[in-house]
């Protein structure tokens, strides 16, 4: 194959190719915890679900994911699309003066960071702190304050999840399908969204959160997840109305209304509402004016 040909391009052609860039502020994440079903006895909850339910009963209101799924997803303000590299062997002796490198393994980043806006009830901190507490076997709250407290880490299958997602999409993700009924929209894998699914993921650290008597700022919590690998899929724009979504992609279509209800409930009536909205307004979910929320609050 020959190299590229030098030739003139019309400005209209260049605009059609270059003026539709992907933007960083349109994404949605999903943080489904380990299975809530006991594999040995399906009629009973799993150890993780039982642990989180007990924690929610003693004041940790954010420990139960099913009650706070919407809050956790919408509060994620920053995330990173993961990367990978190839490990190679260097070969020097096959050809004189030639160094070759042959790939033998794919290496994935060791962690992925997610930053969340912390709500006034601290449910975000509740959820991830208790997930880590479950991993490390901190079951007995009464003895944790003692000097002789000890614990035993849980088995990996009990605390890992295969349902950690980042879906990247654009503002006009449904541009081609808006006039097609929901149950007939395309499912051919050519949708305008990109979903990363993390395998064997679990939170490995929570970054310290400084507080100060200086001018108030939004409190943010950064959680690092480690994982074995990730897979990528080109998801369709929508799923059938009768199909249970397996990733956050299918919820994009309702994101604006979900965001409106959430901001009404959590932020508009608080002193930090204006500041939060300025940070949130350019995301894929927050494309309405603050006045629209205030008029309905």
Characterise the protein shown here.
The strands form 3 sheets. Strands 1-6-7-10 form a 4-stranded antiparallel sheet. It has a 4-stranded antiparallel sheet with strand order 2-5-9-8. Strands 3-4 form a two-stranded antiparallel sheet. Strand 3 (84-91) and strand 4 (100-108) form a beta hairpin. It is of the alpha+beta class and 297 residues long. It has helices at 11-18, 47-57, 65-75, 123-135, 156-159, 255-266, 273-280, 290-294; strands at 27-31, 76-79, 84-91, 100-108, 112-117, 164-169, 193-199, 202-206, 220-226, 229-233. The protein has a domain at 23-84 and 106-249.
Task: Tag the structure with descriptive keywords.
8 helices; 297 residues; alpha+beta
Taken in chain order, the helices and strands follow as HEHHEEEEHHEEEEEHHH
Number of strand segments: 10
Query: Reading side by side through the largest sheet, how are the strands ordered?
Result: 1-6-7-10
Query: How would a crystallographer describe the biggest sheet?
Result: 4 strands, antiparallel
Q: Give the fraction of residues assigned to helices.
A: 10-25%
Separation, N- and C-terminal Cα atoms: 63 Å
Rg, nearest Å: 23 Å
Derived structural class? alpha+beta
Outline, from the CA principal axes? Answer: extended
Measured by DSSP, the beta-strand proportion falls in 15-25%
């Amino acid at each position: 194959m020959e190299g590229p040909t030098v030739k003139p391009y019309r400005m209209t052609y260049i605009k059609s190719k270059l003026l539709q860039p992907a933007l960083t502020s349109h994404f949605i994440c999903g943080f489904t915890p380990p299975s809530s079903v006991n594999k040995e006895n399906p009629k009973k909850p799993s150890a993780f679900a039982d642990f989180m339910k007990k924690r929610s009963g003693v004041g940790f209101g954010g420990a139960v994911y099913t009650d706070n799924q919407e809050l956790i997803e919408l509060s994620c303000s920053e995330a990173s699309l993961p990367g990978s590299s190839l490990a190679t062997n260097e070969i020097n002796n096959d050809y004189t003066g030639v160094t070759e490198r042959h790939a033998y393994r794919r290496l994935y980043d060791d962690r992925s960071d997610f930053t969340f806006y912390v709500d006034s009830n601290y449910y975000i901190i509740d959820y991830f702190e208790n997930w880590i507490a479950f991993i490390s076997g901190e079951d007995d709250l009464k003895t944790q304050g003692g000097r002789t407290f000890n614990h035993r880490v849980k088995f990996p299958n009990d605390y890992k999840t295969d349902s950690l997602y980042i879906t990247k999409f654009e503002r006009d993700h449904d541009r081609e399908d808006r006039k097609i009924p929901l149950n007939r929209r395309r499912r051919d894998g050519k949708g305008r969204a990109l979903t990363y699914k993390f395998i064997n993921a679990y939170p490995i650290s929570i970054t310290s959160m400084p507080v100060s008597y200086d001018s108030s700022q939004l409190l943010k919590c950064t959680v690092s997840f480690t994982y074995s690998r990730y897979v990528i899929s080109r998801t369709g724009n929508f799923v059938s109305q009768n199909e249970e979504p397996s990733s956050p992609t299918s919820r994009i279509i309702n994101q604006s209304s979900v965001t409106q209800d959430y901001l009404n409930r959590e932020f508009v009536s608080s002193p930090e509402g204006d500041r939060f909205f300025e940070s949130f307004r350019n995301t894929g979910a927050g494309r309405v004016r603050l006045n629209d929320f205030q008029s309905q609050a």
